[in-house]
Amino acid sequence: MKNTKKKHYDVFVIGSGIAGQTAAEICREHNLSVAIADNREFGGTCANRGCDSKKILLQFSHLVYQSRNLRGRGVEKLPKLNWKKVQKFKRSFSDPIPPNTEQKLKDLGISLYHQSPNFISKTEVEVEGKVVSADHFIIATGNIPRELDIEGKEFLKLSEDVLNFKKIPKSITFIGSGYIAMEFACMLATLGCKVTILERDKTSLAKFDDYLVKKLITKMENLGVAFIFNADVTGIQKLKKNLKVSYSVDGKSKTHKSRKVINATGRVPAIETLDLEKAGIEADKDGIVVNDHLQSKSHPKVYACGDVSNKSPSLTPLSGLQGYIVGNNVVKEKSKTLDVPCVPSTVFTTPNLSSVGYGEEEAKARYKSVKIYQGDCSNWFNAKKENEDTYAYTILVNERTDEIVGAHILSSKANESINVFATAIYNKMTVKEFKRMMLTYPSYSMDFKKMMENK
Ligand SMILES: Cc1cc2nc3c(=O)[nH]c(=O)nc-3n(C[C@H](O)[C@H](O)[C@H](O)COP(=O)(O)OP(=O)(O)OC[C@H]3O[C@@H](n4cnc5c(N)ncnc54)[C@H](O)[C@@H]3O)c2cc1C
Ligand SMILES: NC(=O)c1ccc[n+]([C@@H]2O[C@H](COP(=O)([O-])OP(=O)(O)OC[C@H]3O[C@@H](n4cnc5c(N)ncnc54)[C@H](O)[C@@H]3O)[C@@H](O)[C@H]2O)c1
User: Fold this and answer.
1) Which pLDDT does position 235 carry in this prediction?
2) 180 belongs to an annotated ligand binding site
């Protein structure tokens, strides 16, 4: 490459998702000269090909699911989906994201690059045929799907492909059963697709509450999802109409046929093309190694935020917060520290599995005595009125102080109601204080008081 044109910025941001945009905007607000590069459409994963698009599609399968539950109880006909129109509706949200993001950044006076830069020294990258230097670099490149190194890997599709399906396939296999597989499995099974999940581990969603995950798996099996655990996937072969997945369980070789096979085995930091070693930026399997100021531990002029930093979990709200911290720390070094007491999270399955605070093992390791409120409430009013057969909870309390330290809910409204527990845990509320709060009736949040009753 001929390095004829040279450019210098105060700050060069790599990645235009929520983390990169947030950091770039803060730097620009403080009159720093800022450039941002992205090697794909501007706007990042969540808005273009993640959370938002997924949630739009899920509401349609949820509508079908709810109508089915209430069929014969007032619902006569099930809704008939026009998937082409559903996709068009989804695109009406996602299509404007890249141009609108670019326009917003340009209006702020931020320079845009449409390529992956690569470091050539501690202070320079090469991008679009130019050498660009900067006082600070912000790496905000997010995660990308983990590559599965198996025979026939070229036949694998990704979450992004599921979001863009032109029609619901007759059958599908997910390799992996984390967030992505479990959410899409519920959607597709509800819409008539035969879903099989091949999971390497002995269970799904390993980081979530075991009692609730078991109930969720049973529920999904009732929706028609087949789970195969301890599966070692070895290859994929293309047949006339189907794909044949080869795998083994306990040393026994097996095969399974379906129209599509999705690689949902996790996401890894998007750092491969950046040539980090040329700038002396240290990274591990979780991403760029940063301190609590989200500053690279090996290169203090480099910051990392969002999924690509090694501060998990990889979720949109945390990525936004990290972008905010990095933007402020570039403007004024060490002015902000990442201090996240609890990050709520929902797996948007049927029903939702939501979690905030400590899990049982973590709580037991941290506190001398942990009180566990756990139970099935599928016979309570909220579930019964929806003819929903799955509703359960695990709530963890530090027995010495009566403080709520973890809440895990499996219910159709858990994605919203978990925020009540997030507020309670953030504010270190005790069970007694929680019960003193007035909450709306009837509501899923109101049920939380009853869940924490001594039996
Ligand atoms: C299908 C799916 C569903 C999800 N659902 C949810 C959800 O419901 N709730 C939730 O909280 N989280 C969800 N997530 C996770 C969420 O999308 C991420 O945590 C969030 O987008 C991370 O933001 P970020 O800014 O760190 O990275 P990203 O949004 O991934 O942005 C990184 C940007 O960097 C660019 N980039 C990558 N490599 C390079 C390079 N070499 N050079 C230049 N640019 C580069 C990318 O193109 C991208 O635009 C979901 C993810 C997926 C895949
Ligand atoms: N609702 C949400 O907030 C949401 C939704 C989607 C994604 N996300 C984010 O994106 C990340 C990635 O999601 P994901 O579902 O791809 O990953 P994940 O890490 O949640 O799950 C991956 C699963 O694949 C399994 N696996 C790994 N290798 C395997 C193999 N070779 N064969 C079979 N199984 C294998 C793992 O044991 C695990 O169960 C999540 O961790 C989360 O941070 C969040």
Assistant:
1) 98
2) yes
Of the pLDDT bands very low, low, confident and very high (cuts 50, 70, 90), residue 340 is: confident
Tally of structural domains, the chain: 3
Element (H, E) at 356: strand 352-357
Complete DSSP assignment for 175-191: E--SHHHHHHHHHHHHT
Residue 301 amino acid letter: K
Rg (the chain; Cα; Å)? 24
Domain co-membership, 86 together with 129? yes
Name which residue sits closest to atom 17 of ligand 1, judged by CA: 46
User: Who contacts 375 (Cβ-Cβ below 8 Å, separation ≥6)?
Assistant: 392, 393, 451
Pocket test for ligand 2, best of 200, 309, 415 (most atoms within 8 A of CB): 200
Reported pTM? 0.97
Shared-domain flag, residues 64 and 104: yes
Predicted confidence at residue 80, as pLDDT, reads 96
Domain's final residue, options 244, 265, 286: 265
Edge-to-edge strand list for the sheet holding 226-228: 226-228, 194-198, 171-175, 260-263
| Within-domain flag for 159 | yes
Say whether both 273 and 254 belong to one domain. no
* CA of 315 relative to ligand 1 center, distance in Å: 8
The residue among 399, 407, 394, 403 whose CA lies nearest residue 370 is 399
The closest alpha carbon to 318, from 339, 300, 299, 287, belongs to 339
Tell me what pLDDT residue 342 has: 85
State in Å: Cα 296 to ligand 1 middle.
20
Domain boundary among 235, 265, 295: 265
Q: Please state, in angstroms and rounded to a whole number, the distance separating the CA atoms of residues 133 and 122.
A: 9
Q: Tell me: do 185 and 210 sit in the same domain.
A: yes
Do residue 24 and residue 139 come from a single domain?
yes
Range of the domain at 446: 351-451
CATH code of the domain containing 430 = 3.30.390.30
Verify whether ligand 2 is closer than 6 Å to residue 176 (CB atom).
yes
Pocket test for ligand 2, best of 143, 158, 180 (most atoms within 8 A of CB): 180
Confirm whether 1 is domain-assigned: no
Instruction: Indicate the pLDDT class of residue 312, thresholds 50, 70 and 90.
Output: confident
Average pLDDT over residues 410-429: 97
Mean pLDDT computed over 99-125: 98
Is the ipTM value over 0.95, yes or no? yes
